[in-house]
Design goal:
Number of strands: 9
Order of helices and strands: HEEHEHEHEHEEEE
Radius of gyration: 16 Å
Distance between the termini: 28 Å
Number of helices: 5
CATH topology: Deoxyribonuclease I, Chain A
Strand order of the largest sheet: 1-2-3-7-4
CATH architecture: 4-Layer Sandwich
Largest sheet: 5 strands, mixed
Length: about 170
Amino acid sequence: MGIEEFDKEGRYIECEFKDFNIASAYFPSGSSGDVRQEAKYRFLDSFEKKLLECNQNETPFLFCGDINIVHKEIDIKNWKSNQKNSGCLPEERAWLDKIFEELGCTDAFRLINKDAEEYTWWSNRGNAYNNNVGWRIDYHIFNKFFSRTPIRTSVYKQERFSDHAPLIVEYE
Protein backbone atom coordinates (compact mmCIF):
# COMPACT_ATOMS: atom_id res chain seq x y z
CA MET A 1 0.00 0.00 0.00
CA GLY A 2 3.03 2.22 0.14
CA ILE A 3 2.82 2.77 3.90
CA GLU A 4 6.02 1.66 5.65
CA GLU A 5 4.34 0.77 8.94
CA PHE A 6 2.18 -1.85 7.25
CA ASP A 7 4.37 -2.77 4.29
CA LYS A 8 7.06 -4.11 6.62
CA GLU A 9 4.43 -6.43 8.12
CA GLY A 10 3.59 -7.86 4.68
CA ARG A 11 -0.10 -7.11 4.98
CA TYR A 12 -0.96 -6.27 1.38
CA ILE A 13 -0.18 -7.47 -2.12
CA GLU A 14 -1.94 -6.30 -5.28
CA CYS A 15 -1.91 -7.62 -8.83
CA GLU A 16 -3.01 -5.56 -11.81
CA PHE A 17 -4.71 -7.31 -14.70
CA LYS A 18 -6.14 -5.96 -17.93
CA ASP A 19 -9.70 -5.54 -16.66
CA PHE A 20 -9.39 -5.50 -12.85
CA ASN A 21 -7.03 -5.33 -9.87
CA ILE A 22 -7.06 -7.92 -7.11
CA ALA A 23 -5.46 -7.64 -3.70
CA SER A 24 -4.81 -9.96 -0.81
CA ALA A 25 -5.05 -8.14 2.51
CA TYR A 26 -4.36 -9.17 6.07
CA PHE A 27 -5.77 -6.45 8.30
CA PRO A 28 -4.16 -6.02 11.73
CA SER A 29 -5.81 -7.50 14.77
CA GLY A 30 -6.28 -5.24 17.73
CA SER A 31 -6.85 -8.05 20.18
CA SER A 32 -3.43 -7.77 21.84
CA GLY A 33 -4.06 -4.28 23.20
CA ASP A 34 -4.57 -0.58 22.61
CA VAL A 35 -1.35 -0.06 20.61
CA ARG A 36 -2.36 -2.67 18.03
CA GLN A 37 -5.98 -1.45 17.99
CA GLU A 38 -4.73 2.03 17.11
CA ALA A 39 -2.56 0.50 14.36
CA LYS A 40 -5.66 -1.29 13.09
CA TYR A 41 -7.54 2.02 12.89
CA ARG A 42 -4.63 3.58 10.96
CA PHE A 43 -4.72 0.63 8.56
CA LEU A 44 -8.49 1.06 8.06
CA ASP A 45 -7.97 4.76 7.28
CA SER A 46 -5.21 3.93 4.77
CA PHE A 47 -7.23 1.18 3.15
CA GLU A 48 -10.25 3.44 2.83
CA LYS A 49 -8.06 5.89 0.89
CA LYS A 50 -7.04 3.02 -1.41
CA LEU A 51 -10.72 2.22 -2.05
CA LEU A 52 -11.52 5.87 -2.70
CA GLU A 53 -8.62 6.07 -5.17
CA CYS A 54 -9.89 3.00 -7.02
CA ASN A 55 -13.37 4.50 -7.22
CA GLN A 56 -12.07 7.89 -8.38
CA ASN A 57 -10.02 6.18 -11.11
CA GLU A 58 -12.92 3.81 -11.92
CA THR A 59 -10.55 0.88 -11.34
CA PRO A 60 -12.38 -2.44 -10.97
CA PHE A 61 -11.07 -3.75 -7.66
CA LEU A 62 -11.49 -6.94 -5.64
CA PHE A 63 -9.79 -7.52 -2.33
CA CYS A 64 -9.78 -10.75 -0.40
CA GLY A 65 -8.47 -11.75 2.95
CA ASP A 66 -8.62 -11.62 6.69
CA ILE A 67 -10.23 -8.31 7.56
CA ASN A 68 -10.38 -9.16 11.29
CA ILE A 69 -13.83 -7.57 11.62
CA VAL A 70 -17.28 -9.15 11.77
CA HIS A 71 -19.92 -7.07 10.07
CA LYS A 72 -23.31 -8.14 11.36
CA GLU A 73 -24.76 -10.35 14.07
CA ILE A 74 -25.10 -13.17 11.53
CA ASP A 75 -21.28 -13.21 11.21
CA ILE A 76 -20.49 -14.23 14.80
CA LYS A 77 -21.76 -16.84 17.23
CA ASN A 78 -21.66 -14.75 20.43
CA TRP A 79 -22.70 -11.28 19.25
CA LYS A 80 -23.62 -9.71 22.59
CA SER A 81 -20.65 -10.95 24.58
CA ASN A 82 -18.14 -9.76 21.94
CA GLN A 83 -19.29 -6.14 21.54
CA LYS A 84 -16.27 -4.85 23.50
CA ASN A 85 -13.71 -7.05 21.77
CA SER A 86 -11.50 -6.08 18.85
CA GLY A 87 -13.03 -7.37 15.66
CA CYS A 88 -16.57 -6.65 16.82
CA LEU A 89 -16.22 -3.07 18.06
CA PRO A 90 -18.85 -0.59 16.86
CA GLU A 91 -16.17 1.60 15.22
CA GLU A 92 -14.85 -1.34 13.21
CA ARG A 93 -18.29 -2.44 12.08
CA ALA A 94 -19.10 1.18 11.18
CA TRP A 95 -16.04 1.17 8.90
CA LEU A 96 -17.49 -1.83 7.03
CA ASP A 97 -20.87 -0.06 6.87
CA LYS A 98 -19.12 2.92 5.31
CA ILE A 99 -17.32 0.96 2.60
CA PHE A 100 -20.48 -0.96 1.72
CA GLU A 101 -22.97 1.91 1.91
CA GLU A 102 -20.96 5.01 0.98
CA LEU A 103 -18.16 3.61 -1.18
CA GLY A 104 -20.38 1.14 -3.04
CA CYS A 105 -18.46 -2.01 -2.17
CA THR A 106 -20.08 -5.45 -1.96
CA ASP A 107 -19.47 -8.41 0.32
CA ALA A 108 -19.44 -11.21 -2.27
CA PHE A 109 -20.17 -13.92 0.29
CA ARG A 110 -23.22 -12.20 1.81
CA LEU A 111 -24.52 -11.26 -1.63
CA ILE A 112 -25.18 -14.98 -2.13
CA ASN A 113 -25.17 -16.62 1.29
CA LYS A 114 -27.59 -15.29 3.92
CA ASP A 115 -27.15 -18.26 6.29
CA ALA A 116 -26.12 -17.89 9.92
CA GLU A 117 -23.26 -19.85 11.45
CA GLU A 118 -21.07 -19.63 8.33
CA TYR A 119 -17.77 -18.79 10.00
CA THR A 120 -14.18 -18.58 8.79
CA TRP A 121 -12.31 -18.27 12.10
CA TRP A 122 -12.46 -20.08 15.43
CA SER A 123 -10.49 -19.49 18.59
CA ASN A 124 -8.08 -22.26 19.52
CA ARG A 125 -9.62 -22.20 22.99
CA GLY A 126 -12.71 -23.87 24.38
CA ASN A 127 -13.24 -26.38 21.58
CA ALA A 128 -14.60 -23.49 19.48
CA TYR A 129 -14.10 -25.20 16.11
CA ASN A 130 -15.89 -28.41 17.11
CA ASN A 131 -18.75 -26.38 18.62
CA ASN A 132 -18.80 -23.94 15.67
CA VAL A 133 -18.36 -20.94 17.96
CA GLY A 134 -16.82 -18.76 15.29
CA TRP A 135 -16.50 -15.46 13.52
CA ARG A 136 -16.70 -14.65 9.80
CA ILE A 137 -13.78 -12.26 9.42
CA ASP A 138 -12.55 -13.33 5.97
CA TYR A 139 -14.01 -11.62 2.92
CA HIS A 140 -14.10 -11.10 -0.81
CA ILE A 141 -15.11 -7.47 -1.28
CA PHE A 142 -15.40 -5.72 -4.62
CA ASN A 143 -16.10 -2.16 -5.69
CA LYS A 144 -18.83 -0.88 -8.01
CA PHE A 145 -16.53 -1.03 -11.05
CA PHE A 146 -15.79 -4.75 -10.71
CA SER A 147 -17.92 -6.45 -13.36
CA ARG A 148 -17.67 -10.13 -12.52
CA THR A 149 -20.66 -11.54 -10.65
CA PRO A 150 -20.13 -13.99 -7.81
CA ILE A 151 -22.08 -17.18 -8.55
CA ARG A 152 -21.08 -19.58 -5.75
CA THR A 153 -19.59 -19.29 -2.29
CA SER A 154 -18.44 -21.74 0.33
CA VAL A 155 -16.33 -22.07 3.44
CA TYR A 156 -13.92 -24.96 2.99
CA LYS A 157 -13.93 -27.09 6.15
CA GLN A 158 -13.08 -30.55 4.79
CA GLU A 159 -9.51 -30.07 6.04
CA ARG A 160 -8.27 -27.84 8.82
CA PHE A 161 -5.17 -25.80 7.97
CA SER A 162 -5.18 -23.23 10.79
CA ASP A 163 -7.64 -21.30 12.96
CA HIS A 164 -9.14 -19.99 9.67
CA ALA A 165 -11.04 -21.83 6.96
CA PRO A 166 -10.69 -20.69 3.34
CA LEU A 167 -13.56 -18.59 2.01
CA ILE A 168 -14.16 -19.58 -1.61
CA VAL A 169 -16.02 -17.43 -4.10
CA GLU A 170 -16.51 -18.44 -7.71
CA TYR A 171 -17.07 -15.60 -10.20
CA GLU A 172 -18.66 -15.75 -13.65
